[in-house]
Amino acid sequence: MIGNCGFRLIFPKGMIAGRKILFLAAGVLLSANLLAQKSKGQLQREKQENLQKIKETEKILVETTTEKKNSIGELSALNKRIEQQEVLMLSIKSEVELLDFDIEEDNQIITTLERDVNKLKEEYASMVLAAQKASGKIDKLTFLFSAASFDQLLMRLKYMEQYGKARQEQADAIAKVQQILSEQVRLTEIKRAEKQSLLTEEQKESNQLTGLKQKKKGLVKSLEKEEKRLKRDLVETKKAVAELDLLIARIIKEEMERAVAEAKRLRELKAKTNKKAEEVKEEEAADASIALSASFEDNRAKFPWPAGGFVSQRFGRQMHPVLKGIEIQNDGINIQTKQGETVKPIFGGEVKRVALIGGLGTVVIIGHGEFFTVYAGLKEVTLKTGQKVTSNTELGKVIASHEGISELRFQIFKNTTPLDPQKWLRN
Q1: CA distances from 119 to 170, 178, 376, 383 (A)
Q2: What angle is formed at CA 52 by the lines to CA 49 and CA 58, rounded to 5 degrees?
Q3: Which tens digits make up the pLDDT trace of 24-63?
Q4: 359: region left, alpha or beta (phi > 0 left; psi from -120 to 50 alpha)
Q5: Residue by residue, what is the 3-state secondary structure of the chain?
Q6: C-alpha to C-alpha distance for 409 and 373, rounded to whole angstroms
Q7: Segment (H or E) for 199
């Protein structure tokens, strides 16, 4: 029998172990890199989006300083710019942390691969040693022709073929794992270089943030010295806003009264058995108004922004950014934009009023069933009351103040109740 000829069949164990090591090494390397790429890709997309926002805010900030006059608008743009810079730095830090994690994981993989290569080499050496010992006792031809039967000769021949194949597979496994190891080392070096580049970028952005904060500190001090002017501007703004509030309240009241009267008339129409064609059309129009309200509400948190820019004043009560102890009430939001920014409705509807208010520019009020949207601070408005609009209709452009600040006042009402626009606009 084969076992009596001096050879021991030790290679299958090494061969199977080699295959397992090869598959595990390749699998771990692939999955680790795929997961890292996914997270890295997401971080890089977020960073690019933030860089685009920074670019837009920088343009707004430059426009606020062209008048060479300190203003609340400049402070708002500077605050937004600092906020975006902090988000950018956080994004860079996250990328560095991810690379640190990846590099640490890579080092563990490299250590494991090196251990696996050594193990494969040891197994291969044992196989070669066993072959050398066997060949020292008896040559191949003697081993084959000393078989007691033809069947035994065939078995010995098959044995020798398998042994040679096992040694070759073991050598191939060593070469492949070494290749994977070399590739892993190369990728890790790339990540180290990328990390160093990010650290340099982080330092640069940190210096930028320090500069922005120093600029803000100087601007706040300058504005604090102009308390009288700021209070005078605040009084004028409050008067203009109060006029706007009265206009909105009157328009909404008229619309609500009209809706009640229309509903009453429709109930009377339904009580009649014979309806005229005009009456049917009027009833259908009322049903369309109800459907429009429902459709508006269904789009909560999905509406497009009426203009580009950033929120310079949020909804509700808040402290004045400079004047101590003074609160501001806002029934909408202020969106600071680039000069000449085009404004569009967030939803289709009917223009209920176009009016000019001193200090705020032109105001457009649009009805959407029981909902109303208000756009104040416009110029170049050509719309007429009663005109139908869609979300692609241009209402006008944002007007710039005497300080060079372009700011849209945007409000949403459900009947007479003001709503926080940021909860209705797309995030």
Answers
A1: 11, 12, 76, 81
A2: 140
A3: 555 555 555 554 555 778 888 888 998 999 999 999 988 8
A4: left
A5: CHHHHCCCCCHHHHHHHHHHHHHHHHHHHHHHHHHHHHHHHHHHHHHHHHHHHHHHHHHHHHHHCCCCCCCHHHHHHHHHHHHHHHHHHHHHHHHHHHHHHHHHHHHHHHHHHHHHHHHHHHHHHHHHHHHHHHHHHCCHHHHHHCCCCHHHHHHHHHHHHHHHHHHHHHHHHHHHHHHHHHHHHHHHHHHHHHHHHHHHHHHHHHHHHHHHHHHHHHHHHHHHCCHHHHHHHHHHHHHHHHHHHHHHHHHHHHHHHHHHHHHHHHHHHHHCCCCCHHHHHHHHHHHHHHHHHHHHHHCCCCECCCCCCEEEECCEEEECCCCCCCEEEECCEEEEECCCCEECCCCCEEEEEEEEECCCEEEEEEEECCEEEEEEEEECCCCCCCCEECCCCCCEEECECCCCCEEEEEEEEECCEEECHHHCECC
A6: 11
A7: helix 150-224
Question: What pLDDT, in 10s, does the model give residues 222-244?
Answer: 999 999 999 999 999 999 999 99
- Provide CATH code, domain 227-423: 2.70.70.10
CA-derived radius of gyration, the chain: 38
DSSP state of 400: B
Contact 412, 371 (CB under 8 A): yes
| Count of beta carbons in the 10 Å neighbourhood of residue 5 | 17
The residue assigned the tokens 């129009």 is 285
Q: Enter the tokens of residue 205.
A: 């952005």
Tokens representing residue 203 in the block: 């330092």
Angle subtended at Cα 263 by Cα 260 and Cα 265, rounded to the nearest 5 degrees: 110
Q: What is the pLDDT of residues 56-103, one digit of tens each?
A: 999 998 888 776 678 899 999 999 999 999 999 998 998 888 888 888
Percent of the chain with pLDDT over 70: 74
Helix then strand then coil, in percent of the chain rounded to 5, is: 65, 15, 20
d(CA 408, CA 330): 13
- Measured CA to CA, the distance from residue 18 to residue 134 in angstroms comes to 23
- The tokens for 118 are 């050594």
Q: How far apart are CA 115 and CA 118, in angstroms?
A: 5
Domain boundaries, the chain: 2-224, 227-423
